[in-house]
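Molecular record:
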Amino acid sequence: MAHTNGTEVVPTLPEPSRPSKGELKPEEFWWRDRQKWLEDQGYVLRARYKPDWLPSWKTSHKPYWKCEDGQPIMVPHILDATRLSDGEPVVLKRILTSQHPYEVEITRFLCSEPLASDSRNHCVRLYDVLDVPNEDDMVVLVLPLLRRYDSPPFETVGEAVDFFTQVLEGLQLMHHHHVAHRDCMNQNIMLDPKPLYPEPYHPRVIDWTRDLSRPVKHHMRTTHPTRYFFIDFGLSRRYDPAGGAPREPPILGGDKSVPEFRRAAGAPCDPFPTDVYYLGNLFREDFLQMYHGVEFMQSLVDDMVRDEPKERPTIDEALSRFQEICASLSSRKLRSRLVARDENPVERVVKGVKHALGSTRKVSHPVSAVNSGREQSPA
């Protein structure tokens, strides 16, 4: 939740959506019961998951939801942790190998050499794979702590252009190595928060400091460029290049608008054009329909989301066309503000003045500045 101070949105701590006393949820018991084992592997969970945990609100007399240890798990199979060796925040992802038999293999492949050294590689890094004791079908992946790709919000056209560039290049690299993501929707693209957030934030309440004492501060992308990463390769497949274009029944991913999903059940299709649709629909729904200023993407996006997969451009064609678009954009255009379509006139004027006087003037060319900083913040 948030309240406004003039036109500036000030975050407020989220209150619980249903009555609770802050106790562990049933889905958190698995993590609590393996807290010691995870620590022995080098990964420390928050105090909430220690067997001898005493809720801090019992003595501080604050509402539990205002306490660091009162924040429950969001997704049962994913939990934040800290790497003991260097204090690095990480994410632990529990998977069943019988349900996702290729996830470990493909994730490892995509962050192995020589792919890892390719500047186009925007696949999440895999730090470790832990075999869970007495669970033959289960492993825990250790991954960087990332943040949703649009948090904080984009501010300039140049920042959006850099995002488009990175994800198109990232998908191109995967396709060049015969990997189809098969679920590259907006929730499966994230950013490296380290350049943008100079202080740690709470992994559960991400707009607040680690101790929930105040809203966390952040930089803008133009002055502190970041990198974007594809995550979640549970539905991904790697194909034999000698086998030609793959044809297999589609796997239903998170974006239910994919035309292939609406056709005859199980009708085989090529998953690579489906990936192109996923990105095109992300550009359409999260940018073209949300902001003024990115209309130059309309024609390309229209082609990327065509109903007939064969009529969509390949990722190479999409990236080539996008690069031609970029060549036509002036520095002034790139530096201009992204204007939300739902802004009222007063907001538009105030934000426009603030933008004109703001930090974008510190950078001579937003996109070139972002490009020059890409290699500075690997996840």
